[in-house]
TrEMBL record:
Keyword Membrane carried by entry: yes
Keyword Cell membrane in record: yes
Organism: Janthinobacterium psychrotolerans
Membrane spanning stretches: 6-28, 64-86, 93-115, 149-175, 206-225, 231-249, 256-274, 289-307
Subcellular localization, as worded in the UniProt entry: Cell membrane
Protein name: Simple sugar transport system permease protein
CDD domains: TM_PBP1_transp_TpRbsC_like
Upper classification of the organism: Bacteria, Pseudomonadati, Pseudomonadota, Betaproteobacteria, Burkholderiales
InterPro entries tied to this protein: ABC_transp_permease
Length: 323
């Protein structure tokens, strides 16, 4: 493979396809953290949803049943995390890391137990979610540039890609233009003031974790039944942590968080494109170094923006009702 095979158009399409995993997880974390909950357990919930989605989709040969199973598992984990952190006043970081560690091992063990394929599920085949062809594609795809944009950049993606991108204005509206969003942000900034105003802080945080569980389930389902077509051990590859970094980059705001997800999706696409390419001067870069690209970018982003980002003031602090 040479540099001539390195196409910017392919990078743009790959960016659009890579971003939904991060978008769903980042929006999930945004709801949780805006309410005052540190959701470090995104990684584990993505893995759990990916396994449940792949296993049920393969068994039933229906991707929508797989998505429903992933949602149920992810919501159950989110509510368990909420119970430990909200009702029992447990350490939110410890609860999230426990979910990550447990799901990393449990999903592998269950996959090996049920399918005996080295800790992965069989290929889903027809049980995958396939791409959507937009109306009129056949009439415009031969038009230079416009045809490519309509047929490949905008069209030709799974339905979950469109859901992910439409989610951004919806989350923005919910957070900043609804009563629920106002209460959510109040619980994350000053829960005692919210409690004095008659808002149930615990109920609001439970609701936030419920929404976060639903959204995070789509991230795992997208990995399993759209991108890969199977479940593989630790296939999330740090997507939950990248989503948290995108939140820091976006200062806990939906639109800027979305841009952070696009940035990581872009670097992930570049990683795929330059693997095996003979670059000028440096030649062919080892694959292990290329795989480091998104994580090096993560460190740079955190080092450069962490001091400038302002998290919700009550994040990570268990709420104890004043007497």
């Amino acid at each position: 493979m040479t540099l001539d095979d390195f196409h910017f158009a392919s990078i743009l399409v790959s960016t659009v396809r890579n971003a939904p995993v991060l978008i769903f997880a980042a929006m999930a974390g945004l709801f949780a953290e805006r309410s005052g909950m540190i959701d470090i357990g995104l990684e584990g919930k993505i893995l759990a949803s990916a396994f449940a989605s792949a296993a049920v989709a393969y068994t039933t040969q229906n991707p929508y049943y797989g998505m429903a199973a992933g949602m149920l598992v992810c919501v159950a984990l989110a509510l368990l995390q909420a119970y430990v952190s909200i009702t029992q006043k447990g350490n939110q970081l410890v609860a999230g890391m426990a979910i990550n560690i447990a799901m990393s091992g449990l999903t592998f063990v269950l996959a090996q137990f049920f399918f005996q394929q080295g800790g992965r599920t069989p290929d889903l085949g027809s049980a995958r979610l396939f791409d959507v062809v937009l109306p009129g594609t056949q009439y415009v795809e031969h038009i230079p540039f416009i045809g490519w944009v309509y047929a490949h950049l905008i069209g030709g993606h799974s339905i979950l890609v469109y859901v992910a991108f439409l989610l951004i204005p919806l989350v923005h509206w919910l957070l900043y233009h609804t009563r629920f969003g106002l209460r959510l942000r109040a619980c994350g900034e000053n829960p005692h003031a919210a409690d004095s105003a008659g808002v149930s802080v615990e109920a609001t945080r439970y609701m936030a974790m419920l929404v976060a569980g639903i959204l995070c389930s789509f991230s795992g389902a997208y990995l399993a039944i759209v991108q890969s077509g199977f479940f593989l051990r630790d296939m999330s590859a740090g997507a939950g942590y990248l989503a948290l970094t995108a939140m820091v980059f976006g200062n806990w705001r939906p639109v800027y968080t979305f841009l952070g997800c696009l940035m990581f999706g872009f670097f992930g696409a570049i990683q795929i494109q330059i693997e095996g390419v003979d670059l000028p001067v440096v030649g062919r870069i080892p694959g292990s170094l290329i795989q480091m690209v998104p994580y090096v970018v993560t460190v740079i982003v955190l080092a450069g923006l962490m001091a400038k980002s302002v998290a919700p003031k009550a994040i990570g602090i268990p709420f104890v009702k004043s007497r």
